[in-house]
Amino acid sequence: MTAKQRILARLQSARGGSRLPRVESPALQAQVPQSAEACRVRFEVEAAALGVECYVESSVAGVHVRLAKLIDARRVLSWDPAQLPYAAGGLLRAPIQGTAGRTEQATAEIGVTGCDAAVAETGSLVMFSGPGRSRTISLLPPFHVALVDRANILFSMADVFERYRERIRASASCTFITGPSRTADIELTLTLGIHGPGRVAVIIGP
Amino acid sequence: MSTFQLRVHRALDDSKLAGALANVSAQLRTRRTLAFQSLPDADAVRDHARKAKLDTLRDLPAHLATFEANLRANGVHVHWAEHAEDCHRIVLEIAAQHQVRRVAKAKSMVSEEIHLNESLERAGLEVVETDLGEYIVQLAGDRPSHIVAPIIHMTRADVGRVMHDRIHTPMTDDPATLGRFAREKLRQVFLDADMGITGANFGVVDTGTICLVTNEGNGRMVTTLPRVHVVLMGIEKLVPTLADLDRLLKLLARSATGQKLTAYTTLISGPRRGGDDGGPEAVHVVLIDNGRSRLMASENAEILGCIRCGACMNVCPVYTSIGGHAYGDTYPGPVGAVVTPGLRGLDGWADLPSASSLCGACRDVCPVRLDIPRMLLTLRRDAAPTHAPRWLRLAMAGFAAVVARPRAYRAATAVLRRVLRRSAVDGWIRQAPGPGRAWTTARDLVAPASTTFQQAWRDRGVR
Fold first, then answer.
1. Which residues face B285 on adjacent strands?
2. In this structure, which of A146, B171, B191, B417 has its CB flanked by the most CB atoms within 10 Å?
3. What ipTM did this prediction achieve?
4. Residue B219: its pLDDT value, please?
5. Mean pLDDT of all residues in chain B?
6. H/E element holding A78?
């Protein structure tokens, strides 16, 4: 018998089921549908509470100006520029990309990404891994800027799970980023940017 | 005194520990309370989460089989480990197969439970813990004392001293500076690692997905940069669907740290796909029993629904007095007092179920409403005939014989009443005679009344 067979056989004979308490669960409140505008506002409030800088731009030009200002003279690590929304890739001059060696990627001072969805209720950014969208970009640099299309802000994590079930399964990874990297291991004193970015900015475009 | 009692006394004598525990646990309690205010419908969410966990456990073999099939379909290698040694061997085989020398680990309670690091190091691998708290613990040669806040027992000065002594950072007790030192050291570890090892907070059966929550980002680093990712998970970690996962995630961070969600919630459904930039080439999942199937056969199978949030520790009057090390094993606090004897057996751990006042605070805060006091009583009952000291068993048999016979009971209480009243001053006994002395070292005993209730009843002429 293999280890698997022995474990399963023990579980079968354990009949743990018969001794576990039975639970009746009451109906959950249905989620109240939220307008796109309400979702955007809630996202901003939640993200700001986490220490995320939120910029709402009503035009593509505005997005470009904001992004250029945030990048300033920093060395950029970016998604494949062609995959950035609002044609923002055109602004980047020879950024390091996810295909570069890790050590080179680790020298970047700012990571520029889009995102696949955002969650209003928690202020989270949802990022799937994929070609041209290395997971390192939102992780290695000390500063992460994400471009968010306001149409992609869903209300809850449950909404994301419902809409993207197949994509979650098909992608190597799907990450919900909820604020900057943080630790409170030493006397519960909050320290940002312990391993991931300590500064996160979101530009919400038209 | 048992080794457990020795550890308790050592902890109670440590005033620095008492201060650290009081401060951190009070903060975590408050944060949890506030966080639940932001969860509409919290009671129903808890019921659903409890149901999801317990129903999955009831039908665990079928769920494990489906989970394995879905993992394999996603390109994940699946291994089964019956006990610690099995798991060590499997991880070493994976390391050999991928020519691994350097291992970066994210926090994993099950890896502590099976003492994996020692085994990997003996085999010549370099293993570094990358969660800040766990890193300090590793540098200090210490053990974590809380499942969420591993160095709850250390002050900032302790941390500064450990880092100064072990990795020669300039002496400081500023948490932000210490964090920066750790970031610099560990950044290189992430970049150099060949293999990342993590635990799993949940396994989603329906999609074959591993869910991992971290705040620091080390979990993302070790699942992104190294060539190989190994997931160690207990077989009880499954939830059926993403919808169940959503409800459990709503509860986990709120209960653990008072956050709505941790900074990073990572869902891993396999190795890098064709065309992906980066990500591990291979993902291995090791499904670990190590006593869980035995626990499943006991009356305490319910404890396998634990999601390791640590909330029961922060509210426990015993844990917040003695800290995690006194419990002697990986899982401290109320949950540990049930899990440790459940996984390892009562031998050596029979004292743990008594480390509780049965006040029920743990059951009240548990996000999945585990009835920990009931399980502690079950263990006490099981331990009594075999693990209580001989004198206590004899004393209890004597007590039972006396209280079951009214005449003997009346005679015994008459003697006891007289003896105790002789030691009383102003109605209080400050030092009881004989074996009762230990009881009065920490409190006074009220003197018994001069007549018994039955006597008073008879004196009133009622029969």
1. B78, B231
2. A146
3. 0.96
4. 97
5. 95
6. strand A76-78
The predicted pLDDT at position B462 comes to: 63
Residue A13: name the closest of B375, B296, B54 by CA: B296
**What would the DSSP string read from start to end of B377-404?**
HHHHHHHHHHHS-HHHHHHHHHHHHHHT
Per-residue pLDDT tens over the stretch B287-335: 999 999 999 999 999 999 999 999 999 999 999 999 999 999 999 999 9
Q: B427: helix, coil or strand?
A: coil
B22: contact with A, CB 8 A cutoff:
no
Kindly give the parts of chain A with pLDDT less than 70.
Answer: 16-17
Q: What is the pLDDT of residue B2?
A: 77
Q: Where are the beta strands (DSSP E) in B91-178?
A: 102-105, 126-129
* Beta-carbon separation of A168 and B58 below 8 A: no
Give chain A's domains with CATH numbers: 34-205 (3.40.50.10420)
**What residue spans in chain B does CATH classification 3.40.50.10420 cover?**
39-290
CA–CA separation, A97 and B119 (whole Å): 38
Amino acid letter, residue B204: V
DSSP A53: E
Q: How many A×B Cβ pairs under 8 Å?
A: 266
pTM comes to 0.93
Check whether B463 has a pLDDT greater than 60: no
Residues near B248 by Cβ (< 8 Å), separated by ≥ 6? Answer: B49, B52, B53, B202, B239, B307, B367
User: Nearest CA to B242 among B70, B19, B33?
Assistant: B70
B266 touches chain A (CB under 8 A): yes
CA B51 to chain CA centroid, Å, is 21
Residue B410: helix, strand or coil by DSSP?
A: helix
Least CA distance to B42: which residue of chain A?
A28
Report, as an integer, the average pLDDT of B391-410.
93
Q: State whether residue A191 is helix, strand or coil.
A: strand
Look up residue B10 and give its amino acid. Answer: R
Report the b/e string of A91-113 with b at 16+ CB within 10 A: bbeebbbbebebeebbebebbbb
B417 touches B451 (CB < 8 A): no
